[in-house]
Design goal:
- By secondary structure, this protein is mainly beta.
- It has a single domain (23-153), classed as Jelly Rolls, CATH 2.60.120.10.
- The protein has helices at 6-13, 140-153, and strands at residues 28-29, 37-45, 50-57, 66-69, 73-79, 83-84, 96-99, 104-105, 107-108, 115-122, 124-128, 134-138.
- Strand 11 (124-128) and strand 12 form a beta hairpin.
Amino acid sequence: MQTIDLIQFTEKFNLPDQAIDVNDIPWVPTHGEEDGVWFKPIRFDLTTGSWIHISKFEAKKGNARHRHTGGTVLAYTLQGSWRYLERDWIAKPGTLVYEPPGDVHTLVVDGEEDMITLFYLSGVIEYFDEAGNVVKQDDVFYRMKKYYDYCEQNNISIKNLIY
C-alpha cells in the first residue's frame, strides 16, 4: 500500500477555498424593512450552526434585548459606532467585540452615522420582551431562510454560502 504525505492527504479531503465578493450579496432586512436593520450573509456552516454576516443598523436604531446561546460571538466594527446598554464600552471602527455564550445585552446605535459590523455567530439568539420572556429565536437556519426568501422574492441570484 502506498502512503501519501500529509500535504497530499490534506488536499484529498480539504474543502476548496472561496473568495466572496460581498458587493454581489444583497442587504437583507433582518426583521422587516421598517426596522432599519439589515444583514449580508457571508457563510452558513450547517455542521457547527455558525454563520458570518455583515450587519447594518441605521443611525438611532437598535436591537431588542437578547441572549446568545451555544457559542461565542465576535464582532468587528467597520463603520459608525454602537454599544450595549448594559456595558460601558463603545465599539467604533477597528473595535473587536467578544461576547461569551449566554451574554444578555441590548444593541443600540447612538450616533448620527449608520453602523456596519462584521459578526461571527453560532448557536441561537433568543429575543426577550419587557418581562424577560423569549418571544423569538434566530439561528443559522432562520438567517439562511431569510436570505433565500429575500433573493427569490426579488429575483436575485442566490450565492452558495453553505459549508
